[in-house]
Amino acid sequence: MKKLTLSILFALGYISQIQELKAQESLALNFNGTNSIIEFPAIRFDEYEEFTAEAWVYNWSGYIFSQGPFGDPENSVWMATGNNYYSSGWESDKGNPNHEFSSGLPQPGQWVHVAMVYDGVNQIVFVQGKLKNKIAAPKPGPLNPNRSFTIGAEPSPGQEFATNYGSGLIRVLRVSNKARYSDNFVPSERFDIDQHTTFYLSPQGIKGTKVKNLGNNEHNGLAREVSVTKGDDIKTIVIKGIVLDLEEAPLANCSVSLSSESLRLITVKTDIKGEFHLILNTPKRSYEITAEKDGLRRDITEISPSVLGDDKLSIRLIPSSYQHLRALSFLTADWFREGRTNDGQPYKIEINYEWASNGNIILGSWAFKNDGITWMSGNSTLYWDALKEEIVKLGFDSRGNHYKSVLSVDEKGEVTELRTSTNQDGVVTALGFVIKRIDRKSYTRQRVSINTAGNLEGVGEESTITLVPKY
After folding, report:
1. N or C: less crowded end of the chain, CB within 10 Å?
2. Model confidence over 254-263: pLDDT tens digits?
């Protein structure tokens, strides 16, 4: 009798919770695509004999969730929608390390159900209940249990993933230790919480920065810049366009990036007709679009969605030196370095690099400041010399010094700059620098000299340059 009573109470608890969740269906979690994120302790996908990860999303592009950084040697599990490098899948030590499938960009302006299933033998991906891919795969892992189960982003160290935040709305996200689907099905508008539910996220579970896993009361997380909104209040804005080559023929598989205020937001690929569309949930005043492929490139600036309306952008690419300079693209941002002078005075060096002239040059500037006062500053232009086939940098400063450098980048991404500098008195000095990228937020700069054997030797201390935080 006691066992029966407990079962009834357990069932009543589920019914009560389902009714509460149903009342929340008009609400959704809004991820802005720039700094929205929710982090929970790890989910042990590698301990499940089968599982299902599923979500209802609206205008979503990017990572729905990820656990572990992308790329070897560590294994990870992720689920994403969007362009060609976004996919759903996992890594395993058994067989081929990557087991993934790209389901593409969901239809804008409507709620879309996406699901990734492991039935103990196969990896199965569904969109709107339709089977998109089914392939034999081992289960994920082993996984690092200290990694976060991250919703709305993926902590990839790779340079190609400059922006790893997902953009759009999530109404509900559920993980189950059961393969819930095996063939085409009609997705339920709401997900029940049952004995197989190990993770359940909905707007009901978020209060400020604290987030509850409604499927496990002992599994809680933290949110950053995630808002709760009514799904009906979202006005979908889609920027549509077509990319053309030099002969004005449609260009397929071309990378198209959307940026605002020097921050890359979305990157997609054109289809076989050369067409693309970019979904905006929280429109800004203006945007920049960059399209590029195989040495062709075009930058379009000051794009206003309100002015553009339903018109389709037509972007005709032209030749660019960008492909020769792209290894230095990690520098194009605002940076700073703080320290003290020899007499103990605090100083700050502010550095900026930005693309210009359709990716043919990188413009640089710097300023040495003390107590907010600029004591010295300079500018530079970095370009590709097609005749000598080398990267050249020309610079000058406010004291009349000027220089010319030749830069090279090795297979590890390490930058070597050999400089010939001339001061205001006409004295010429040869010196050099080695730049090593640490991650997306910092790099080191080491001054070097050339010894008698022709090798580079470090001079002085290595300095660390840090990205200026925007958020």
Report:
1. N
2. 988 888 876 7
